[in-house]
Amino acid sequence: MKLGRNDPCHCGSGKKFKRCCMDNVSKQHAQVFDDAEAMLAMNPDLSIDELNAALQHKVQDRNNQPHPDFCGVTPTQMANWLYAPFAQLQWVTIKTPTDFSDSPVMRYLS
User: Fold this and answer.
1) pLDDT (tens digit, 9 = 90+) per residue, 87-109?
2) Are the C-beta atoms of 46 and 53 separated by less than 8 Å?
3) CA atoms of 54 and 35, how far apart (whole Å)
4) How many Å is the maximal CA-CA distance in the chain?
5) Residue 73 pairs with which residues in a beta bridge?
6) Bridge-partner residues for 42, per DSSP?
7) Is the pTM of this model over 0.85?
8) Contacts of residue 89, Cβ cutoff 8 Å, sequence gap at least 6
């Protein structure tokens, strides 16, 4: 199902998609188009299959960049951490900060 401009945004903000995440998606699409143009400019003899493979690799690299919402962990690393059996997480340590004033949840609870 395609998300329309006036539909509520899928991120849960309560805003319309066109006022929330649509601009981010448009920027990402523009970056992919710019990458394709740059690849074709450097090598105009690329076939469609070669261009598609190169773009898939570029998009995969972009999708595996560290994400600020995940504290600098890549989405792949976060998925591996979330779905790993508990026996494999012995090396994971979680440090609790002494000052919770920066945490919106803790400010709300207090």
Assistant:
1) 777 776 766 667 777 777 777 77
2) no
3) 10
4) 63
5) 67
6) none
7) no
8) 81
